[in-house]
């Protein structure tokens, strides 16, 4: 399994971000090939103090090759281009293989 994570910094207009993200961006994400699962949250918190991020998104793919193919696809290119329409605070993107927690 390979995980793709986007950490969004606080946008200039949080209400616009939430509305646009749910009604316009996520429907684009759902069309990406090879996407096994996805989830998001606007309730990012830390144990102490203010969280450095406003929202988080996680996607799961079978492996790094499936993730790369999804990002390079026409759908993936549309998703990437759409980020500028709502993420005015910027975003940090990370991805990594997930290790199983069993013995």
UniProtKB/TrEMBL annotation:
Coiled coil: none annotated. It comes from Antrihabitans stalactiti. SUPFAM superfamilies: Dimeric alpha+beta barrel (SSF54909). This is EthD family reductase. Signal peptide: none annotated. It comes from the Bacteria. One of its GO terms (molecular function) is oxidoreductase activity. PANTHER family: BLR8190 PROTEIN. Residues 11-88 form the EthD domain. NCBIfam families: EthD family reductase.
């Amino acid at each position: 399994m390979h995980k793709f994570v986007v950490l969004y910094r606080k946008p200039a207009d949080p209400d616009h971000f939430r509305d646009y993200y749910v009604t316009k961006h996520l429907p684009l994400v759902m069309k990406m090939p090879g996407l096994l699962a996805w989830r998001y949250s606007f309730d990012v918190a830390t144990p102490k103090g203010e969280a450095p991020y406003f929202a988080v998104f996680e996607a799961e793919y079978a492996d790094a090759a499936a993730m790369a193919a999804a990002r390079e696809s026409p759908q993936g290119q549309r998703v990437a281009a759409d980020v500028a329409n709502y993420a005015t605070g910027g975003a940090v993107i990370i991805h990594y293989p997930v290790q199983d927690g069993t013995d």
